[in-house]
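Q: I'm building a small set of examples for a reading group on sequence design. Run inverse folding on the following structure and report the sequence directly after it, with nothing in between.
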């Protein structure tokens, strides 16, 4: 039996068939799920996916949404460029493809935020065609099965994995095969403690045969992590509204609403309309990004905005607490606003 036959037999008995994007398995559903699943686990994605599809049931509705609406539903999922690219792609599809995703992988891969593997994953699952995909789970399975040396992020290793994946493709059941190889990586050939004894392809797996499963795939060379500490200002206008400002479109938290920030709090103290003498400090909040450890030091201040009418800058706005849930806010900013509200209620 070939790799694909064994894998499909296993999937028929043990595979995941109740994921929300499988019912129905449309190109739109698969696309949204694939983008959400980048760097993120299935169990985290499921509630986000359900809320997203509930609010934006098709490309047209998504294309007509504001960036704020989309980012609000993405809030907490991280890597916000993915959400902005979803919106851009929906708008392009509305303009150039009759509000549908194109049916061929090359045209899909030309859209914002869709790489070659994601394009193939959409094509394969939505149209039941065999196509190479290489997400993190699949790379791990193949690196072990063929005992491929080197970190998969390296282009020569990636090429080798792509060629190996292409050789294993079945002629039929493209959609099931794609789901099956992803499921094998997610549930059997896991990063730590893979269940090789229950693996349908253990008989030909090179890493298993030489008892070196833990050596594959090679680890990513250590990332140099930086740390950053900065102040944020929770500025209130005396009526419970808080001043937020939109982040620049690129960089950390690009396009999201955040609190005014600066490194040592010096600029914050001179904020127009702020009574700096009455600033209060909340305990610092730690937040980790892939490449950075953040310590956020919140200061609470009252603005004389209402009495002086000092305007805010063009990228700033006062928001009522009832509006916060609908905003695209970075996770720690949402946490700080909740802590601030709890403090007010005491
Ligand atoms: Fe992964 Fe083990 Fe199966 Fe090899 S035998 S593919 S290492 S689960």
């Amino acid at each position: 039996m070939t790799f694909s036959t064994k894998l499909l037999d296993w999937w028929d008995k043990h595979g995941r068939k109740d994921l929300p994007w499988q019912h129905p398995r449309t190109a739109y559903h698969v696309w949204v799920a694939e983008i959400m699943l980048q760097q993120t686990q299935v169990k985290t994605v499921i509630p986000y996916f359900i809320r997203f599809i509930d609010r934006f049931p098709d490309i047209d509705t998504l294309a007509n949404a504001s960036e704020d609406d989309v980012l609000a539903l993405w809030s907490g999922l991280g890597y916000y460029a993915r959400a902005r690219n979803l919106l851009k792609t929906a708008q392009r599809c509305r303009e150039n493809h009759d509000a549908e995703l194109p049916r061929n992988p090359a045209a899909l891969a030309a859209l914002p935020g869709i790489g070659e593997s994601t394009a193939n994953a959409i094509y394969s699952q939505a149209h039941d065609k065999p196509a190479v995909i290489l997400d993190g789970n699949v790379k791990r399975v193949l690196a072990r099965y063929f005992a491929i040396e080197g970190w998969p992020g390296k282009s020569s290793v990636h090429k080798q994995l792509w060629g190996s994946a292409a050789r294993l493709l079945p002629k039929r059941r493209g959609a099931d095969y794609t789901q099956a190889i992803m499921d094998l990586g997610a549930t059997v050939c896991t990063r730590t403690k893979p269940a090789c004894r229950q693996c349908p392809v253990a008989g030909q797996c090179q890493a298993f045969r030489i008892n070196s499963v833990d050596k594959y795939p090679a680890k990513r060379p250590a990332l140099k992590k930086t740390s950053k500490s900065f102040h944020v200002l929770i500025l209130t206008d005396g009526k419970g509204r808080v001043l937020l400002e939109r982040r620049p479109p690129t960089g950390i938290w690009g396009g999201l609403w955040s609190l005014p920030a600066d490194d040592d709090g010096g600029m914050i103290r001179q904020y127009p309309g702020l009574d700096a003498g009455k600033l209060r400090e909340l305990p610092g909040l730690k937040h980790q990004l892939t490449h950075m450890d953040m310590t956020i030091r919140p200061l609470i201040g009252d603005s004389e905005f209402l009495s002086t009418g000092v305007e805010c800058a063009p990228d700033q706005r006062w928001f009522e607490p009832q509006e916060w849930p609908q905003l695209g806010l970075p996770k720690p900013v949402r946490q700080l606003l909740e802590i601030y509200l709890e403090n007010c209620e005491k």
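The chain has two domains: 3-215, 226-345.
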